[in-house]
């Protein structure tokens, strides 16, 4: 029996209908699984979607750049009124398009509206003589974009809002600390926050869970990647402590909301997902505060243990996300985990073998490691897929 490829939206609708039919007793579980098994998500890359979204983003950047380039030539009133008019026109145009057509075109205009909204925030701050150079304005931009995304139920502005929000929190956390370890911990805290929101949105707004969860995966993998490199200047900041406390409370709420009452700990379960993301946060924090150079007994041995522990932790985290993506049928999560694993292993291999080999020998060793990692990632993906069926 041939498999039918359909769009993600239609596939989600079909699964919802099958669940409703099964709940009403019209079909049994085996029949529902058989029908769902005939359909799979169409993963073909849509070039027109990329062109439209990138075009809107570039227009937004160009707009802000144009205002900055002509800043001194325009009066404050003209600058503020002009950017507000552009923002309002973009918002109205996006909603008008959304009411008449569906697809990526309204999303692209909403992305442009978010960019114009950033211009409104920065221009208003300038008019009110708000000090620049800090993360506050970026945070205000992120908050406005987040409110706009929820008001319009738009996934595209939510993606932009998440990126702005993470940038604001990382900047705020490391503002007075020249430490990449602080940035890594900020990303891991944000990963816990976004993962908890993904689980909560499965009950509130399922479409937004498809944005929050991949964001959590990406932040966790990037945060662990950065934390793997030793940091002699790490220091705990108030932003990290307060953000971590909020993230943990939200994670506990999400775990309680997802708890089935039977204590079931399975790869696709919310309790398991929250538990693992908290363990990843703990592992990343341990790597960030662990400075092998400060070890008086054996700095070399401590550095080796730290490097091996970081590699093992990262491999386990990537494998977990691959299992999660396969069991929950999350689009893009499995390729993201595999790509992150290959990049991490290759980077660590270069750091390990560069002092031992040189010239052609170094490239031969790295090439062998790269190919071996790719083969193992491919075989692991196939194994996970077969086990999860």
From TrEMBL:
**Pfam families recorded for this chain?**
DUF2157
Q: Where is the DUF2157 domain?
A: 20-155
Source domain of life: Bacteria
Against InterPro entries, the record matches this protein to: DUF2157
Kindly state which keywords UniProt assigns to this record, in alphabetical order. Answer: Membrane, Transmembrane, Transmembrane helix
Determine if Hydrolase is one of this entry's keywords. no
Provide the protein name.
DUF2157 domain-containing protein
- Which species does this protein come from? Actinocorallia libanotica
């Amino acid at each position: 029996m041939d498999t039918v490829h359909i769009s993600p939206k239609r596939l989600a609708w079909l699964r919802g209908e099958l669940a409703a039919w099964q709940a009403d007793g019209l079909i049994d579980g085996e029949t529902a699984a058989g029908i769902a098994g005939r359909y799979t998500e169409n993963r073909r890359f849509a070039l027109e979607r990329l062109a439209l979204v990138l075009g809107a983003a570039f227009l937004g950047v160009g707009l802000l750049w144009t205002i900055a380039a002509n800043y001194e030539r325009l009066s404050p009133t003209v600058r503020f009124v002009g950017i507000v008019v552009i923002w309002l026109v973009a918002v109205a145009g996006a909603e008008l398009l959304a009411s008449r057509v569906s697809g990526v075109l309204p999303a692209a205009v909403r992305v442009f509206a978010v960019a114009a909204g950033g211009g409104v925030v920065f221009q208003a701050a300038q008019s009110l003589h708000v000090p620049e150079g800090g993360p506050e304005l970026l945070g205000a931009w992120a908050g406005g974009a987040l409110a706009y995304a929820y008001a319009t139920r738009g996934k595209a502005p939510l993606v932009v809002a998440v990126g702005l929000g993470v940038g604001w929190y990382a900047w705020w956390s490391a503002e007075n600390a020249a430490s990449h370890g602080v940035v890594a911990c900020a990303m891991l805290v944000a990963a816990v926050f976004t993962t908890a929101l993904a689980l909560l949105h499965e009950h509130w707004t399922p479409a937004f869970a498809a944005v929050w969860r991949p964001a959590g995966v990406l932040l966790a993998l990037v945060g662990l990647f950065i934390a793997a490199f030793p940091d002699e200047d790490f220091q705990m900041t108030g932003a990290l402590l307060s953000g971590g406390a909020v993230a943990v409370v939200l994670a506990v709420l999400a775990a309680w909301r997802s708890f089935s009452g039977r204590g079931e700990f399975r790869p696709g379960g919310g309790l398991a997902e929250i538990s693992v993301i908290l363990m990843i946060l703990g592992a990343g924090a341990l790597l960030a505060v662990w400075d092998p150079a400060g070890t008086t007994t054996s700095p070399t041995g401590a550095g080796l243990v730290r490097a091996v522990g970081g590699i093992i932790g990262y491999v386990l985290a990537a494998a977990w996300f691959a299992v999660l993506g396969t069991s929950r049928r999350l689009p893009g999560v499995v390729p993201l985990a595999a790509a992150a694993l290959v990049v991490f292993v290759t980077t660590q291999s270069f750091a390990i073998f560069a002092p031992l080999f040189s010239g052609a020998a170094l490239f031969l060793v790295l090439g062998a490691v790269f190919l071996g990692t790719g083969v193992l990632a491919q075989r692991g993906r196939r194994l996970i897929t077969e086990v999860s069926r």
